[in-house]
């Protein structure tokens, strides 16, 4: 080892070289932190620091309870900060080509679950828009978007394979400005796996998003499933100055 370079950086470089040389194949698990510590004769925290750096850079991703895996070469790296963007906006920034395919659209009734998510009374109308989002010709995400029909009476007249949902919501003066988001990793069930063209049980990011407009109305409840093999999300928080006085 080159002792002029921090140990974790040396281990990081060694793992990165194995990925580039195809010793660690795309989608395959790499050795555990404990095993890497044994291989490189370092403590486990040093091995963990090397893996953390490779996860941050998008070479690897973790699945709780299963291990650490090599990302595919066509991985999209998306950074989410304080100002939430729609998935379409993020794809426009990161993908060379993108398109959407509408699978299902139409009215539903707000029963207990949707009513609680959208702050609606029982039996109020909810509009469902289900889409598959494509990046660089590959299925990237499956999205189920639910909005209160009372705010968007002409929504069915629009083609959301070519129109941004948020642009449409803005035109109705109900653009989301406040976001409550949840992210977990789950195994893809059959319908999601089929739409993302992955095996059942493959890890996917599950996003739940509830948004409000500037008037405080809940205007969106969206569930999004994104393949872990094709994406790494980085999150940052920016501390903004507080007003004096």
UniProtKB/TrEMBL annotation:
GO annotation terms (biological process): negative regulation of DNA-templated transcription
SMART domains xrefs: HTH_GNTR, UTRA
SUPFAM superfamilies: Chorismate lyase-like, Winged helix' DNA-binding domain
HTH gntR-type domain sequence ranges: 5-73
A GO MF term: DNA-binding transcription factor activity
Keyword Transcription regulation annotated: yes
Pfam families reported for this sequence: GntR (PF00392), UTRA (PF07702)
Keywords from the named record: DNA-binding, Transcription, Transcription regulation
Superkingdom, natural source: Bacteria
Gene3D superfamilies reported for this sequence: Chorismate lyase-like, Winged helix-like DNA-binding domain superfamily/Winged helix DNA-binding domain
Transmembrane segments: none
Protein name, per record: GntR family transcriptional regulator
